[in-house]
Amino acid sequence: MYAIVEIAGQQFKVAKDQKVYVHRLPESEGSKVTFDKVMLIEDKGNVTIGAPAIEGAGVTAKILGHLKGDKVIVFKKKRRKGYRKKNGHRQYLSEIQIESISASGVKASKKAEPKKAAPKATTEKVETKKEAPKKKATSKKGDDLKKIEGIGPKIAETLAAAGISTFAELAKAKPAKISEIIANVRGNHVTDTWPKQAKLAADGKWDELKEWQDKLDGGVEK
Question: What is the Cα–Cα distance from 54 to 60, expressed in whole angstroms?
Fold first, then answer.
């Protein structure tokens, strides 16, 4: 029996007791996780295909540990420019072991239903009362993090989901923590200069930031 399941944005063909390396999962080591995006299940020659996922199916696994993958060297060179850049990257991974594959019985997580508003009172006393002044809704709006050299739309969206949506918040974050947050974003990202760029943006030093960014290549000092 095997299944094709989506884990952390990737699809894997898995079987019971198989060990798999996947993108870093948020759960702690030793905990059990269930993945309900099962695309296909094969059991004794019987194949069930989802559209796109099989309703009620699930794959349960145990997190054996968190680790880093092998180092990948990224080398950039521009001909006749004297430009060479060498960077290394190690992907954050989780090692999991498949414990069971279930074709049914797994309940998908339901979103909380919005509460119904209470019916308005229709008594004469309520009608004669003056309405209290309404408070203006204040919504927190983040900064455009794409102004930081090396940050694209996908990274900005990932950082905002992790609670980093302003230049000030990004300036306080450590490069290692930023790399961990965006570990699942495809590509090689060097975050060393991002907090310093964000600090200049938060202080309104745009001319100084622009002058420095002209010396960067994808957020990396040339």
Answer: 15
